[in-house]
From TrEMBL:
Name by which UniProt lists this protein: Angiotensin-converting enzyme
Classification via CDD domains: M2_ACE
Family: Belongs to the peptidase M2 family.
EC nos: 3.4.-.-
Residues annotated to bind chloride: Y292
């Protein structure tokens, strides 16, 4: 019998040296570890107080069973069945203890995440409020307050990221907890050293300050020098058909808004590569597409674009012919790229403002609800109320009175404000706002519904932890807004609102309508593709930052077939005249809204 015992011990001896994973490896924050109870373990009726056993210890106990006790046998031999039953009972007890301890530690982790989410929401609310105050009242004081609030929030996010990184996520089988920890571990720019992070934030705020402060003198009006992009220059680009006035407006605005921030953007490129480095990403270009969680995102986008490109090429050729007829062959070459200043938009990203020149059937009535809106004395507030009714009619949430009290629907008359349309989540599950300087026209009507789609997204996901309330990827929010914009811009919906008379069913009428949608939505896609591919190339080093303006126009010509009205140089920085560049916000949403709309 003694020989058998020795052999049994030798068989199991290798397991003593086998390292077993344990839940104790899950590095909870210190204060959580300090309150970890020391469980009371009873063995053979005796109470033994020990530190918390790891799952590895429990697993090892399960392998060996209880210590052998010779007192169980009077003659030195045991009944095999009795020993098996005793061992099985011990195994069952250890499994129960193991599962119970795991669940206890998991519950502590859940409580920690709830606490982190609550505090994070408070910190986020304070930061968003400061950013709102700056963008709705641009001055040196609000800018300083916004920077300080942003720095405080960044410091908190940095602590949360470090704490989340210290937890061994491989031991967490709950997919929701795992995802939440992974998202909290992504520090982004907050992983930078504090001095570099402060530089990063200041660069962006300084460029936005330049963007918002850009003013030019009117064409042949040297003393009217307070024209801003919104509303003055935007309206000139949309309505003027004077080639020289459009060229003057385009050149002066790009000189003021773009050229002055070039030095700052070159510095931002270096800082963005530092952001990539501290997040273990090869370069800032790869980091730029990291949130899409696709290893082949650029290739996916190119494939999607190639599917749409034949339609765009047809539209481009048709529009070029129409513009050639309007401006003459001496200004529009029949095989050259289109000058970007005559397409009805400062960035040539939408051509809907020149419909009067390019519409296929000029004699047929085109959808335009603007006159009816003016006749019925529409206001920006009424437009948002109608947008809310649209969403509640499809069983979505109402926004509540707080939304109307706090939002901005028109350009303030007593202060400067950043007028780019935007929707705001104040991170407290009840305060949602929009900032829109709306005009009374069809385009603003659609834009209002677009922004309210963002608000609906906030409302539908407000019950979730903060890290789950963001868009599924950087393009998702915009795709939802554009899909809703397409839905409300149909003749049927305008008829429902009493803004459009019932029309005769004619193919020419339908073609005009579909064409107007295409030159607004499809024409946008190559602009977005060129802009974000340009940023990828600059951030990744594929293009020299000292030649970045030239590279920008090479991509614009490649994807959209457009060119600047005059020759440009590397003194210029034309991409900077687009808000999303100084704000460092991704822009691409290639085809996503079309897929969402087709699925509705």
């Amino acid at each position: 019998m003694t020989c058998c015992r020795i052999m049994l011990i030798l068989c199991f001896l290798p397991f003593f040296c086998d390292p077993i994973w344990s839940f104790a490896q899950l590095d909870l924050p210190p204060y959580v570890q300090q309150i970890t109870p020391k469980p009371e373990i009873y063995y053979n009726g005796d109470k033994v107080t020990t530190p918390l056993q790891t799952l590895g210890d429990v697993d090892r106990d399960r392998r060996f069973g209880p210590p052998y006790d010779e007192k169980n046998s009077e003659d030195g031999s045991d009944d095999f069945r009795d020993r098996f039953n005793l061992n099985q009972r011990y195994l069952d007890r250890q499994r129960f203890q193991q599962d119970r301890r795991y669940q206890i530690e998991l519950e502590k982790l859940r409580n920690l995440l709830v606490e982190t989410d609550h505090r994070g929401s408070v910190e986020c609310t304070n930061n968003v409020a400061a950013q709102w105050n700056f963008e709705t009242n641009v001055n040196a004081f609000t800018q300083t307050e916004a920077l300080n609030a942003q720095q405080r929030y960044v410091e908190y996010q940095r602590l949360v990221a470090e704490q989340s990184k210290s937890i061994n996520k491989n031991l967490i089988l709950d997919r929701k907890l795992y995802r939440q920890l992974m998202l909290q571990s992504e520090a982004g720019a907050n992983a930078l050293p504090l001095d570099t992070l402060d530089r990063y934030n200041r660069l962006i705020n300084e460029m936005l300050y330049i963007y918002n402060g850009a003013t030019i003198c009117g064409y042949q009006q040297p003393f009217a020098c307070n024209l801003r992009y919104i509303p003055d220059l935007k309206e000139i680009m949309a309505k003027s058909r004077d080639w020289d006035e459009l060229q003057h407006t385009w050149l002066e605005y790009h000189r003021k808004a773009g050229r002055e921030m070039r030095d700052g953007y070159e510095q931002l490129i270096d800082v963005m590569n530092e952001v990539a480095y501290v997040n273990n990403v090869t370069n800032a270009g790869e980091y730029w597409y990291l949130p899409y969680e696709s290893g082949n995102f650029r290739q996916d986008v190119d494939i999607a674009w190639e599917q749409i490109r034949p339609l765009y090429d047809g539209l481009h050729a048709y529009v070029r012919r129409k513009l050639r007829e309007y401006y003459g062959p001496e200004r529009i070459n029949r095989i050259a790229p289109l000058p970007s200043h005559i397409l009805g938009n400062m960035y040539a990203q939408s051509w809907s403002n020149i419909l009067d020149i390019i519409i296929p059937y000029p004699g047929k009535k085109l959808i335009d609800i603007t006159p009816r809106m003016l006749e019925q004395r529409y206001t920006p507030l009424l437009m948002f109320q109608l947008a809310e009714e649209f969403f509640t009619s499809i069983n979505m949430s109402a926004v509540g009175p707080e939304f109307y009290q706090n939002s901005i629907f028109e350009q303030p008359v007593d202060r400067r404000a950043l007028c780019e349309p935007s929707a705001w989540d104040f991170c407290n599950r009840h305060d949602f706002r929009v900032k829109v300087c709306a005009d009374i026209n069809q385009k603003s009507m659609i834009s209002v519904h677009h922004e309210m789609a963002h608000i609906q997204y906030f409302l539908q996901y407000r019950h979730l932890p903060k890290v789950f309330r963001n868009g599924a990827n950087p393009a998702f929010h915009q795709a939802i807004g554009d899909a809703v914009g397409l839905s409300v811009s149909t003749p049927k919906h305008f008829q429902t609102l009493g803004l459009l008379q019932r029309s005769v069913d004619e193919s020419s009428y339908d073609i005009n309508y579909l064409f107007s949608m295409a030159i607004d939505k499809v024409a946008f896609l190559p602009f977005a593709l060129a802009l974000d591919n340009w940023r990828y190339d600059i951030f990744s080093g594929n293009a020299n930052k000292h030649m970045m303006n030239c590279h920008y126009w090479n991509l614009r010509e490649k994807y959209s077939g457009t060119k600047p009205p005059v020759l440009r140089s590397e003194k210029d920085f034309d991409p900077g005249a687009k808000y999303h560049v100084p704000a460092n916000i991704p822009y691409i949403k290639l085809g996503s809204f079309l897929r969402l709309y087709s699925a509705l």
